[in-house]
Amino acid sequence: MPESTNPSVLVGMETRDDAGVFLLNEEVAMIQTTDFFTPIVDDPYDYGQIAAANSLSDIYAMGGVPKTALNILGFPADLVDKAAVAQIILGGYDKSQEAGVVILGGHSVKDPELKFGMAVTGMVHPSRIIRNNTGQAGDVLVLTKPIGTGILTTALKNEKLSGDLLQLVTAVMKELNKTASEIMQEFNVSACTDVTGFGLLGHLAEMAGGSGLTARVFCNETPLLPEALKLAEAGNMAGGLKENRKFLAAREHIHSGINDTLVNVLHDPQTSGGLLMAVPRDRADALVRKLHSAGVDAATIIGEFVPANEAQIELV
After folding, report:
1. What are 57-93's pLDDT values in tens digits?
2. Measuring CA to CA, which of 93, 136, 262, 299 is 20 to 30 A from 280?
């Protein structure tokens, strides 16, 4: 599609940012995004909650406040129990209520495969938009959720995931990025994105490339879900992980001694992952402490931006 020439478009498709932003007036800009996917867990209510949290995340990543949503639903009417569909919608509604978001309606279609998500509208002051391509050399990278949801949910499909781990990964995916977003705005972070289907390194490559920098990742400092390494080693890797690694191969430099299974995990496609923030070094420790005190327990410094070299991503 051609790029928009409308002067009210503050963020469009040209930057590969998390959502689009349209100027309404000097005080208010509108953020719009949409996301939906097939079931990631078996429980329909949990699936609805995860899908809603995932859809809202792009608004939080840009420093906005989600206000309204529209449901997007496709399902095989002759195969899926309508009571289960109702639970999916209820899960999305309850998670939206938690976020303070009003669902105005939506649209459903008959579809061979079950799908659910939302189109979300949020608001932000035009001067406080947080983009994914405005990182600065010397910034520290802070991640707010552990990595490995794709590996654990693949293990679930393979009947290799324990009940305790299913409960844990479900809780992580249902968690809103609302608190993390509100706190990061207090620290004037340089850039932010949320971590979803392209994996930690894929979304970080977008940040680094858009900012004209190289991202150095401290692999052993990156928070992982329990048993993510063990399950990946056993072959529980989604097809998207392999595609992510293949796509980024020419952009990465992997230092010697880095465990290859760990490299795989860092490419794992995430569902409703955390926020990945670039913040000036002198504010990073205080940001992490504030996140921890607010219950964002996984928040960790995982790397830094350095001046651009031959690779967009360095794994050290």
Report:
1. 999 999 999 999 999 999 998 888 999 999 999 999 9
2. 262
Q: What is the dihedral of CA 94, 67, 184, 9, to 10 degrees?
A: 140
With tokens 């329909």, the residue in question is: 44
Question: Considering the entire predicted model, what is its pTM?
Answer: 0.96
CATH superfamily of 9-128: PurM-like, N-terminal domain (3.30.1330.10)
The architecture CATH gives domain 140-315: Alpha-Beta Complex (3.90)
Residue listed under structure tokens 């949409």: 34
Secondary structure (3-state) at 156: helix
What is the C-alpha separation between 199 and 227, in angstroms, rounded? 18
Distance, in Å, from the CA atom of 285 to the CA atom of 268, rounded to the nearest integer, reads 27
Helix (H, G, I), strand (E, B) or coil at 172: helix
How far apart are the C-alpha atoms of 240 and 207, rounded to whole Å? 20
Q: Give every strand in the sheet of 313-315, ordered side by side.
A: 191-194, 275-279, 140-143, 300-307, 213-217, 313-315, 252-254
Q: Is the pLDDT of residue 3 over 90?
A: no
- 170 three-state secondary structure: helix
- Residue 194 Cα to chain centre, angstroms: 3
Domain range summary for the chain, segments of one domain joined by +:
9-128, 140-315
Tell me the CA end-to-end span of the chain in Å, nearest whole number.
Answer: 38
CA dihedral 40, 54, 32, 142 (to 10 degrees): -140
Measured CA distances, 15 to 109, 210, 242 (Å): 31, 7, 25
> What DSSP letter does each residue of 177-246 carry, written as one string?
SHHHHHHHHHTT-SEEEE--TTHHHHHHHHHHHHHTEEEEE-GGGS-B-TTHHHHHHTT---HHHHHHHH
